[in-house]
């Protein structure tokens, strides 16, 4: 069973990745979306 510090590290890293993805989505949405991106989705 992993130690408490290992579990905390996983939570912090996972939260940081989630925040980074969210920031990227917000940054992309604020820009004007290219047409090829609209066609893909």
Automatic annotation (TrEMBL):
The chain crosses the membrane at residues 6-28. Keywords: Membrane, Transmembrane, Transmembrane helix. It comes from the Bacteria. This is Heme exporter protein D. It comes from Nocardioides aquiterrae.
